[in-house]
């Protein structure tokens, strides 16, 4: 039962925070018409950011209390956050190169 509750919690967190993040990025991407064509990269970045946030913070405050609850390694966190940062700015770069 706890696992099911945790899965529902994850879906709600990703839904609410993902929608909030997408709203913010969508406003940024509409400033540049070409960037909105490549906005899928921003959506991928939001998912990566939420994954890191969940694995490093939120999983320790939920219903699931299994032994597998560990933080991501610092190096892995840095790599994923760097990739997410690049993906957020990639639509602007692509719109500059192809428009």
Q: Which key terms come to mind for this protein?
A:
mainly alpha, single chain
What do these coordinates show?
There is one protein chain. By secondary structure, this protein is mainly alpha-helical. It has one domain. 71% of the residues lie in helices and 0% in strands. It has 3 helices and no strands. The radius of gyration is 16 Å and the shape is elongated. The termini are far apart. The model has no long low-confidence stretch (mean pLDDT 92).
Mean pLDDT: 92
Number of domains: 1
Overall 3D shape: elongated
Q: Can you count the helices? A: 3
pLDDT under 50 segments (min length 5)? none
How do the SSEs run, as a string of H and E? Answer: HHH
Rg on CA atoms, Å: 16 Å
Care to count the β-strands? 0
Distance between the termini: 52 Å
Please report which band the strand proportion falls in: under 5%, 5-15%, 15-25%, 25-35%, 35-45% or over 45%: under 5%
Helix/strand/pairing category? mainly alpha
The major pleated sheet works out as: none
Provide the helix percentage: over 70%
């Amino acid at each position: 039962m706890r696992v099911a509750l945790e899965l529902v919690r994850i879906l709600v967190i990703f839904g609410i925070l993902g929608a909030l993040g997408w709203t913010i990025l969508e406003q940024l991407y509409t400033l540049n018409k070409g960037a909105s064509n490549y906005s899928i990269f921003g959506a991928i970045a939001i998912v990566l950011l939420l994954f890191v946030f969940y694995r490093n913070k939120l999983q320790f405050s939920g219903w699931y209390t299994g032994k597998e609850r560990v933080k991501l390694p610092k190096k892995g966190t840095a790599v994923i956050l760097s990739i997410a940062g690049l993906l957020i700015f990639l639509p602007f770069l692509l719109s500059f190169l192809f428009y």
